[in-house]
Amino acid sequence: MAKGITSRSENYSQWYNDIVMKADLAENSGVRGSMVIKPYGYAIWEKMQAQLDKMFKETGHENAYFPLLIPKSYFSKEANHVDGFAKECAVVTHYRLKNGSSGIEVDPEAKLEEELIIRPTSETIIWNTYKKWIQSYRDLPILLNQWVNVVRWEMRTRLFLRTAEFLWQEGHTAHATKKEAMAETTQMINVYSEFAQNWMAMPVIIGSKSESERFAGALETLTIEALMQDGKALQSGTSHFLGQNFAKAFDVKFADKEGKLEYVWASSWGVSTRLMGALIMAHSDDKGLVLPPKLAPIQVVIVPIYKGEEQLEAIRKVANKISDSLRAKNISVKFDDRDTHRPGHKFAEYELKGVPVRLAIGPKDLEKGSVELARRDTFEKNFVSQENIDVYIENLLEEMQNSIFEKAYKFREEKTYKIDSYDEFKKQIIDNPGFYLAHWDGTTETEEKIKTETKATIRCIPLDAEDEEGVCMVTGKPSKRRVIFAKAY
User: Fold this and answer.
1) Are 133 and 252 a contacting pair, CB within 8 Å?
2) Domain annotation covers residue 202
3) What is the mean pLDDT of residues 435-458?
4) What domain range is 323 assigned to?
5) Are 178 and 265 in contact (CB under 8 A)?
6) List of residues 6+ apart from 443 with CB closer than 8 A
7) Same domain, residue pair 242 and 337
8) What's the pLDDT tens digit per position in 353-366?
9) Mean pLDDT of 333-357
């Protein structure tokens, strides 16, 4: 166990917080419930952002920016939407401060005529804008995304997983037909799944949300659900089919090819810095962060072991040659020649920060033409020839990416259970949390009963689930397929 990190078995929640802090990912700020994302944490987010942005553009989307402040009246136009976010909204009521007897205070004369909401999500202001942009079928589809911050006034917060302010992307698309909007909704949840599995090395299940778990104002919500190492689920991305709800709320119509006026069809979709929490909890260990190579800001670190400047310079020449060959393959590398830290301290630091590959080079390695190589995921060490080391490391990083995914996939499979007895379910969900596949009668009442009695929720109705006749584990009523229950973050 790394110094200062609580073990997962002792206290999983504290283990998570320790890694976030000790690996220099983020810290609490002076604003309640909001975080400071530190440079190393932000570098991981930047890699996520860059790849997702590339995938969005490959599917025809463009980036735009819409205002942070949204008139309160916009929210009242879509009843379900405002109900869903009313308790989480931060409200701006004044536009000026002044010097008062006790210091700076809000100027009571500067009250806004209409309060402004700091965006919890942007459907309302975007659809108010789309009304000006859309007149004809020729103006469709609109495929936009924005990278922004949002505020949802969370009372119980945890770094990355649930904060009052967080970073995210939100896609908002407008279509001429229901079929196109549904296709968009499905396409984007598949993009998220591909990113989670191929980049985050995190297996996910794609499914639809139950009616009570849907996004406020959506007719259908698709989700990717991942299982964390404590057996809890984490919703890691959602894509929503909004139907014509927002088009009707904001009177967004278009003339079709026959000249007939129709309401526009919509989708929205998003992922957030919550993915950072998922990355930590899916893979890390008691030594610290474990990063899939594709998302590691530093993929290879080279640590010199030397006495005196002469040895250091000889090692530096070899390290520079190795670094150049790695960078030519788009592999990020750092040569750490700080003389303020001993090699052992450096080893511990990069282990804690999850750097996938560590190379150590000393005088004997120079003589032998080798380096000591340690991989972060398995702690295996071996000596590797300096010749063609770039090819060796390139292949190793790919192997590590796959290995990290396979380990997480195996864990999920081992923690996924079929269950038919509600009494057994109530016991198991406490003693052995995981994904539980159970029959459900489809009613909100039964879903709420399970949630109240066990704190488990329906995470999703898997899209690839086969029909299976059965009976609800609670009511005994008929059911056509199993759904996934779990406790969740």
Assistant:
1) no
2) yes
3) 98
4) 300-396
5) yes
6) 475
7) no
8) 999 999 999 999 99
9) 96
95 within some domain: no
How many domains does the structure of the chain reveal?
3
Q: Using the predicted structure, report yes or no on whether residue 315 has a pLDDT greater than 90.
A: yes
pLDDT digits (tens, 9 = 90+) for 113-133: 999 999 999 999 999 999 999
- Tokens 């659809």 belong to 127
Q: Is the dihedral of CA 366, 368, 369, 375 positive or negative?
A: negative
Looking up residue 380, the CATH number of its domain turns out to be 3.40.50.800
Q: Is the pTM of this model over 0.90?
A: yes
**pLDDT at position 1:** 64
Asked whether the predicted pLDDT for residue 79 surpasses 90, the reply is: no
In the predicted structure, residue 2 carries a pLDDT above the cut 80: no
Q: Which residue, among 211, 224, 233, 218, has the nearest Cα to 271 in the 3D structure?
A: 224
Together in a domain, 384 and 421: no
Same domain for 376 and 431: no
Give the tokens for residue 4.
């200062």
The amino acid that residue 227 corresponds to is L
- Alpha-carbon distance of 318 to 271, in angstroms, equals 42
Strand bridging mode 142-151 / 62-63: parallel
- Mean pLDDT, to the nearest integer, of 459-481? 96
Residue 265 is predicted with a pLDDT of 98
Kind of pairing between the strands at 165-175 and 435-439: unpaired
Q: Residue 148: left if φ>0, alpha if ψ -120 to 50, beta else—which one?
A: beta
Strand partners, 358: 301, 374
